[in-house]
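Take a record.
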Amino acid sequence: MTSPPNSGAPQRFPVVIVGAGPAGLTIGNILRAAGVDCLVLEAETRAFIEQRPRAGVIEEWAVRGLQRRGLADPLLERAQVHTECEFRFAGERFRFAYGELTGQHHFVYPQPLLVTDLVREYADVRGGEIRFGVRDVRLHDLETPRPSVSYTDAGTGERQLVECEFVAGCDGARGVSRTVLPETTRIARHDYGIGWLALLAEAPPSSDCVLFGIHPSGFAGHMARSPEVTRYYLECPPGDDPDNWSHDRVWAELQQRLGAEGSAPLTEGPLIEKRVLDMHNYVVEPMTYGRLFLAGDSAHLTAPIAAKGMNLALHDAFLLGDALVAYLDKDDGSGLDGYSQACLRRVWDYQEFSQWLSEVYHGTSSGDEYRAGTTFARLRRLFTSPAAAAAFAEQYLGTAAAY
């Protein structure tokens, strides 16, 4: 942590938010709704964050949380509602109607659309201050009651200093917020030892629900993003080169791994995104350091195995935004004091489910006959035991986690 620059008179905001993703923008909107001034700093341009492809599955509790804060109207108008998913293994199709079991559902709404909604509400409607394209952000004096943040303005090249009471670190694993944590911070990591080839296809969805293909050649996933675009995943070696996967090879593997008796062939189309994700998780404990509060990927990563990342970011944002308002408006510090512990209960619950689901997805392709046998046992139990089905549905929807 560096000393603040000796520039002109510093600006002052009660809260500085570093990072304009779902977590940072939600916190900013909560603060502005309560009349609290804040500043959001973002390294990328507005156009970039509104187009950056990311997750698309939002759990119902998270949507209701956005709705209570006046942030869900466009989502509720345009999102798809999913109440079922389908597992395909051993050449057969197994439909899982989690909506019937729980009365709840998922919303499918790509993250770029949510970010577009949130930044419009924050900057254009609620009058929140946001600065794009900032460089060399630095955090200062976090262990004092008067921390500050400095950065280089992209337009002028000048250093700017902002004094504040709190910093919300929402800038991901590679952002400045992670670099200032003390050595006593615990970072738990888990590497699954596999990769996923993440694909966006300019092709309509081939099913009305999410498909999970459990296959000896590797896992495959199908997730609708819009009527014209579909997200696909293919298990691959970690660190694989996306160029190893030609158009023809991708579609041949998808057709094979997602094929099942009675199912129509997938609708193919041009691949507009192709990148390899190495599956790994991490958790930072505690999620606070002095006046710095981490949220979203700055504090934890859950591999897309269980589609939990954006939901956890929103959970953090709800808790932190409400806690900051309580402190700044009513001098009630209980929410800030309990923030890390409250977040981590859900984080670890989702981490455990991700690990469990990874065995279901990848055990058959592991080359280990024992793991393959236990994978099929889990799948059979899911479709023959009402208790197992109910437990899975709760975890899949996030309703079992403490909130």
Observations:
- The first helix runs from residue 22 to 33.
- The radius of gyration is 22 Å.
- The first strand starts at residue 11 and ends at 12.
- The mean pLDDT is 94.
